[in-house]
Amino acid sequence: MSLLRDWTVSATAGEFAGFLVPAVVGAVLFDSAAALPALMAAGVVEGSVLGWSQARVLRRRLPAMSVRRWVLGTGVAAACAYLLGMSPSTFHETWSAWPMALPIALGVVFGVALLASIGFAQWLELRRHVARAGRWIVWTAAAWLAGLTVFLLVCTPLWQPGQPWWLVAAIGVLGGLLMAFVTALVTGYGIRHLLAAKDPAASVART
After folding, report:
1. Residue 170 vs residue 180, higher pLDDT
2. From residue 47, how far is each of 21, 74, 124, 128 by CA, in Å?
3. Is residue 47 assigned to a domain?
4. Quick one: pLDDT at residue 69?
5. Which end of the chain is more exposed for a tag (fewer CB within 10 A), N or C?
6. How many structural domains does the chain have?
7. What is the domain extent for residue 42?
8. Which of 54-68, 83-97, 114-128, 182-196 is predicted with the least confidence, judged by mean pLDDT?
């Protein structure tokens, strides 16, 4: 099986399976004060499952890589991404009292940080084995931008006020599956590009 196909299949399954946890948590705790910490915890699960699904493929090409560091970093980064993504709505009352330019600036910073969070966390491990690994941050940011765009385009028109939690969750699951495929495909092209240019000597673990 080719690297692109293997990565896309595994990462799609991993992200979709992991996303089921925050999808259900978000539907049940929507508008609850516990939503943010619960979704951050769910994000750790989602990120860890995604990280493992990626690492199982990547380890075949980079035998010296640490699966533990990759999975842990991805899980923590996913929790941070939920914090960044939910902060504007969670703290809306506070932000709305500030001068307009400040929330806009923070929104831009948070958005960039959200898109780069997982790629940055994975770069910390990838740089040990691949030259110019910083490109991975760009690839993953582009992948999540595309995936989240698809998710919002699908789910936003379907979510309506007053829907039962199971329907909200089902719509989120549908969007999550499409998001998982898009992000997996884009990152698949990215990892193939990085490994194609990899110096064989760089795969030796660095101390």
Report:
1. 180
2. 11, 5, 15, 21
3. yes
4. 97
5. C
6. 1
7. 3-199
8. 83-97
How many other C-beta atoms lie within 10 A of the C-beta of residue 89? 11
Residue 206, in any domain of the structure: no
Distance CA 102, CA 120 (A): 25
H-helix segments, the chain? 3-28, 35-61, 67-90, 92-96, 101-126, 135-158, 165-196
Q: pLDDT tens digits for 172-188? A: 889 999 999 999 999 99
Q: Which residue type sits at 48?
A: S
Residue type, 8: T
Structure tokens at 169: 């969750």
Let me know if residue 205 belongs to a domain: no
Phi, psi (rounded to 5 degrees) for 102 = -70, -50
In a domain, 64, yes or no: yes
User: Where does the pLDDT of residue 67 fall: very low under 50, low under 70, confident under 90, or very high at 90 and above?
Assistant: very high
Total residue count of the chain as it appears in this document:
207
The DSSP result for 57-102, as a single string, is: HHHHH-TTS-HHHHHHHHHHHHHHHHHHHHHHHHTHHHHHTS-THH
99-140 pLDDT, tens digit each: 878 878 888 898 999 999 999 999 999 999 999 999 999 999
Tell me the two tokens of residue 162. 């007053």
